[in-house]
Each structure stands twice: as C-alpha cells, then as structure tokens.
Specification:
disordered N terminus; Helicase, Ruva Protein, domain 3; two-stranded antiparallel sheet; Rossmann fold; 3 domains; alpha/beta; 7 strands
Length: 363
C-alpha cells in the first residue's frame, strides 16, 4: 500500500515504503521483522490444510487477523468465516451460541436458534479466548471436534458438520491443564498446529510501518492531512514497550490524528508511558517529563534505583526488579544512556560491590 496518494506524507524514508507485504501473501499484515516472518511462515504452511490451528499470543497481537488470513488462504475461502469470543458470552448462553437450541429448550428460548458450528458448516469457525470455555462445556466441544457432530439444545437430532476450527488464546493452556482448569484431551485436540504470535515489543522494527499504516487509515477517514511525524514522536513509539501490542498502537495513532491540527502528528503517549519503568515512579516521571527533559529523567531514575540497590542489577532485590524491568532491558537502557558504575572513590554513597550478585559495570 503506497502512501504517495494518501493524506499522509511521511518525512522519513522508511515510512514511504509499502505498509503492506510486498509478496502479496498476507495483504493485511504490516511488518517484516524476523519474529513476524517466522510466525507467517507457519501460517503459510498450515493454511491450505484442514488441520485445527491454535493461535497463541498476548492480547492485541492480531490473533483474529491471523485467523482470517488462514481462512482466506485455505480451500474454504469461499465458505463462511464465523467467529465467537468465548470470554464475551455468559456461561449459561455459551452452549446455545456454539450449538444452537430449539424453541422451548429453556426459559426465554422463544424460537429456534442456529449455533456457530452450524453457521460455519463447510467454512471456518474461529473461537477466540478458547481458554475461557467453562470446564462443564469442554466435553461437548471435544465431541464435536472429534466426531464432527452435535445436537442443538432441546433436540435429540444429531447434526453432522464439516468445519475447520481455528482457536486462539492469550492464556497458558498447559498451566491450566496442570491446574485442572482445562481438559488435557481437549488441549491436545486443539494443539494440532500451534502458531505463536510475537508481541509488539519483539517487533520494534515494524513500528514505523504500523504507525504509517494507521496514520493513513485514520487521516483519510477524518479528512485530515498528516504531512509530518516529528522524530520525537516516532522515537517515543519505537521505544515504548506496547503492553497492549498492535491494538494499543492503533488506538494511540487514532488519538494522535484526532489531536493533530497543523498536519503534524503529536506524541499521544503520556510521559509516564513513553518509557514505562514502574507504577511506583509514575508521578515522579510525569512531573519530570513535564519539564521536557525526558532523557535526564530516565538517567536520574535509573541511577537512583542502582544506588538504592547498591548497584546490583539482577535478582529480586536488584535495580531492574525495583523498576519492574527485565535485567536485559535494564542493561540495554544503561548502555543507551551511557550509565556505568563510578569508581569507588567517586561513589558518593560509599557503596561497595555486593559479592555473589550481578553489579553494574558499564560493560
């Protein structure tokens, strides 16, 4: 998708590239990072088959988009694609949503209802948040997957179907199996071909393309012209950890386009989110960022944590844990900011290195 004819005209060379995949296999998927490429290679391998697919990934990583891609690349592409979010349906209605019911099957059943399995016959059924299906309903789901047949509620008639199932979850199903929260036989039946989607924090190279993609969409929809993305805005997007993944990025780009009045895309990330460290430091970081000294505040916060932890980085009492960061992330931030432990005579607090613990060395 070229940006040359869109309301958005980027000021960075990487944003002038096509926002969608040039090879035409997955037209709606934006990005070409190695982590995404690995996942899409698995999608391309399994899509032409009728095998059950289990899509795993954090919330907001695009599991429904991948499910649609699998359907569109399959032999069932001309048949229905039916979806159901299992977490969004109350337990007492979920069985009816899946399998349907006859009139009078229960109080309030005033007419016959066709379930999602029946709707998806000859096509694909996408069950999102499969980990939220109640234990009491899991045997019925297992049966329809194994036997390809079911009965509507209130009916003794067996219906046979030809449905390809694609399921998705952000939950740890093996852990749920061990905790007796999810049936092991159903898990193994679903886990025929797993596809793991990477979180956006592992796809930082894709962020500029995603920003350009969503800017184009929302600028066109709002009749606005976004002619410039400041480097500070793009840097904030690229360095942010995106706990809400692509969905969060999409929403924040929409917010930024709404805010834009002069053709410039503002930074919609609150100061505390532009590089989140921990909830305990939110107020301090917000106040510091208000002065416009983003880098200095990061340095001060990291140095404070290092000094409080006696310059120990790792471990439960280390500076990384104090700020709610992974050790590797913390070390990367230190290197980026040029932070290293001062020589003993320069250590104003008179702190000594802790034996047996990882300490900051700057190397």
């Amino acid at each position: 998708m070229s940006l040359s004819s869109a309301p958005f005209v980027g000021t960075y060379p990487e944003l002038h590239n096509s926002c969608t995949r040039a090879d035409g296999r997955f037209e709606q998927i934006v990005g070409n990072s190695s982590a995404l490429e690995m996942a899409l290679a698995e999608v391309e391998r399994v899509a032409p088959t009728d095998s059950t697919v289990l899509i795993l990934g954090e919330t907001g990583t695009g599991k429904e988009l991948i499910a649609r891609t699998i359907h569109n690349a399959s032999r069932r592409r001309e048949s229905p694609f039916v979806k159901l979010n299992c977490a969004a349906i109350p337990f007492d209605l979920l069985e009816s949503e899946l399998f349907g019911h006859e009139k009078g099957a229960f109080t309030g059943a005033t007419s016959q209802k066709i379930g999602r399995f029946e709707m998806a016959d000859t096509g694909t059924l996408f069950l999102d948040e499969i980990g939220d299906i109640p234990l009491a309903l899991q045997p019925k789901l297992l049966r329809v997957l194994q036997e390809r047949e079911f009965e509507r509620l209130g009916s003794g008639r067996t219906h046979r179907i030809n449905v390809r199932l694609v399921a998705a979850t952000h939950r740890d199903l093996p852990k749920m199996v061990k905790g007796n929260e999810f049936r092991s036989d159903l898990y193994y039946r679903l886990n025929v071909f797993p596809v793991v989607l990477p979180p956006l924090r592992e796809r930082h190279g894709d962020v500029p393309q995603l920003v350009a993609h969503f800017v184009e969409i929302y600028a066109r929809g709002m009749g606005k012209r976004i002619s410039h993305i400041p480097k500070e805005t793009l840097d904030a997007f690229t360095s942010y950890s995106w706990p809400g993944n692509v969905r969060e990025l999409q929403n924040l780009v929409e917010r930024a386009v709404i805010w834009s009045d002069d053709g410039v895309l503002p930074n919609p990330l609150p100061a505390v989110l532009a590089n989140p460290l921990s909830a305990s430091h939110k107020n301090r970081m917000t106040a510091t960022h208000a002065t416009g000294r983003f880098i200095d505040s990061q340095r001060a916060l990291i140095l404070e944590a290092l000094q409080a932890a006696n310059w120990v980085i790792g471990g439960p009492s280390g500076a990384a844990a104090h700020l709610g960061l992974k050790r590797t992330t913390f070390v990367a931030k230190m290197k980026k900011l040029g932070i290293s432990r001062p020589a003993p005579q320069e250590d104003m607090n008179g702190l000594s290195e802790s034996r047996g613990s990882e300490v900051a060395t700057g190397s």
